[in-house]
Amino acid sequence: MLKLIIDVAQPFLVPVCFVSAWLLLILVVWNVWSAARDSIKTAKKMHQVPCSGCSYFTDDYRLKCTIHPSIANTEEAIECLDYQAKTNPMLY
After folding, report:
1. Are 85 and 55 in contact (CB under 8 A)?
2. Is residue 85 helix, strand or coil?
3. 86-89 contacts: CB < 8 A, separation 24 or more?
């Protein structure tokens, strides 16, 4: 009985495995592409954070910003109303 099932299914296994392998490959490439695209999008957004050029930024991991320590170096800091550019960045 089992031999009969195998003999009947064998002609369909090669095309099914071929299609399945290509679908798996396409899904892997699609996921890698999506992850790369999302990473680039996030990196571009994070490069808009102005904290490192602000005079209130301390460069200390314990207190990053003296005015808004909870939002320093986050996306919320992109539109910070208290941002003041450092007068001479080489001194800090």
Report:
1. yes
2. strand
3. 86/53, 86/54, 86/55, 87/55, 89/53
0.90 surpassed by pTM: no
DSSP category for residue 20 = H
Query: Residue 44 is encoded by which pair of tokens?
Result: 């571009």
| CB half-sphere exposure, 16, CA atoms < 13 A | 5
Give the number of other CB atoms < 10 A from CB of residue 58: 16
In whole angstroms, what is the distance from residue 53 CA to residue 65 CA?
Answer: 11
Q: Is the pLDDT of residue 33 over 90?
A: yes
| CA-closest candidate to residue 79, choices 54, 62, 60 | 54
Return the number of other C-beta atoms located less than 10 Å from residue 67's C-beta: 15
